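Fill in residues.
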C-alpha cells in the first residue's frame, strides 16, 4: 500500500514517526514534488518489500551464470532488437504506473542535461536526444542508445574542447542557457494500469539486468554497467558551468576510472535514475532563479 505523504492526512506520532513522511518533507536534496511522491510510494510498495529481497539474489546469481554461459558463445553474439521488444512488453504488462513513468522520464531528462552542458560549453557538440512518448518507442533500441549517447557525448565534447584549446568554465548565472530544460510531457495517469501492473522500479531493474546481459555482447553490457559511474563526470560538468561545487555531494555512483563489478548494476542503475532526477530538478530551480532575476531587472523601480 502506498504511504500517505500529505502531512494533513498523516498524523505524526513522535513515538512512531513515518520514515516515508520524513523523507518526503526533507528538503536537503532537490527533487520535484510529484517525482518524490511517486518515488517514495514505489519504494514503499508491497512489491519492493516482499518481492525485491527474493529477486535480487536470484538476479545476481543469473548474472554469474550468464557470464559463464557466454564463454562458448561467439564474442559478438547479440539480439538487441529482441531484447528491447521483451523489455517494452514487460514494462507495459507488469510494471507499476509509477515505475514506467520514472523510466520514461529518465530518457527525456538525460537528453536535456546533455543538451544543457553542450549549450554552455562554448563549443559545438553533436547530440542525439531520446524523447520516447510511448513505451513501444523503447523498442527502437533506446536503452542501448542511451548508453551509447552518454559515451559519445563525452568523447565529442572533449574532442571539441581540445581542438578549441579550451576547457569547461563557469558561466555567470544571468548568461547560462537553460532553454532546453522543461518537464517532459509524460503523465503518470497515462501509464498502463492493468491488474498485473504491480512490479516496483527496483524489482523491475533487478529482473531486467540479467536479461539485458543475456541479449547483448559482453562489451555492451560492461559498457552499460560502467556508464553509471559517469554520473560523477556529468555532475562535475554541470557544477563547473554553474560554479557550484557544493552540489557534487549528490553524486553516489563512484569514480569513473575505477570500474565496478556488474553484480550491483541493478542497484546502481536505481541510483543513476535518482541522481538524474535530482540534477534536473536543481537545474530547473536555477532556471527559475535566473528568470526571477531577469524579471526583477525589467520591473520599474518602486
Amino acid at each position: 500500500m502506498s504511504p500517505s505523504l500529505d502531512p494533513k492526512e498523516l498524523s505524526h506520532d513522535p513515538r512512531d514517526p513515518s520514515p516515508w513522511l520524513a523523507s518526503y518533507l526533507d528538503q536537503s536534496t532537490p527533487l520535484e514534488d510529484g517525482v518524490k511522491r511517486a518515488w517514495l510510494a514505489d519504494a514503499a510498495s508491497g512489491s519492493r518489500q516482499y518481492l525485491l529481497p527474493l529477486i535480487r539474489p536470484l538476479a545476481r546469481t543469473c548474472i554469474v551464470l550468464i557470464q559463464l554461459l557466454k564463454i562458448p558463445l561467439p564474442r559478438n553474439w547479440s539480439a538487441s532488437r529482441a531484447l528491447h521488444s521483451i523489455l517494452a512488453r514487460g514494462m507495459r504488462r507488469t510494471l507499476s504506473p509509477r515505475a514506467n513513468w520514472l523510466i520514461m522520464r529518465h530518457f527525456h531528462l538525460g537528453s536535456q542535461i546533455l543538451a544543457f552542458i553542450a549549450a554552455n560549453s562554448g563549443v559545438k557538440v553533436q547530440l542525439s536526444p531520446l524523447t520516447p512518448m510511448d513505451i513501444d518507442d523503447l523498442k527502437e533500441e533506446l536503452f542501448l542508445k542511451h548508453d551509447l549517447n552518454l559515451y559519445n557525448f563525452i568523447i565529442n565534447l572533449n574532442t571539441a574542447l581540445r581542438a578549441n584549446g579550451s576547457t569547461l568554465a563557469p558561466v555567470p548565472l544571468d548568461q547560462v542557457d537553460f532553454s532546453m530544460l522543461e518537464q517532459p510531457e509524460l503523465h503518470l495517469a497515462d501509464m498502463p494500469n492493468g491488474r498485473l501492473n504491480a512490479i516496483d522500479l527496483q524489482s523491475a531493474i533487478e529482473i531486467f539486468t540479467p536479461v539485458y546481459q543475456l541479449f547483448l555482447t559482453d562489451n555492451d553490457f560492461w559498457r552499460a554497467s560502467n556508464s553509471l559511474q559517469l554520473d560523477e563526470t556529468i555532475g562535475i560538468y554541470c557544477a563547473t558551468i554553474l560554479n557550484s561545487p557544493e552540489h557534487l555531494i549528490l553524486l553516489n555512483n563512484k569514480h569513473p576510472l575505477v570500474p565496478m563489478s556488474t553484480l550491483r548494476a541493478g542497484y546502481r542503475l536505481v541510483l543513476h535514475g535518482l541522481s538524474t532526477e535530482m540534477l534536473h530538478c536543481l537545474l530547473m530551480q536555477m532556471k527559475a532563479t535566473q528568470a526571477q532575476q531577469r524579471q526583477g531587472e525589467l520591473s520599474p523601480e518602486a
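The mean pLDDT is 89.
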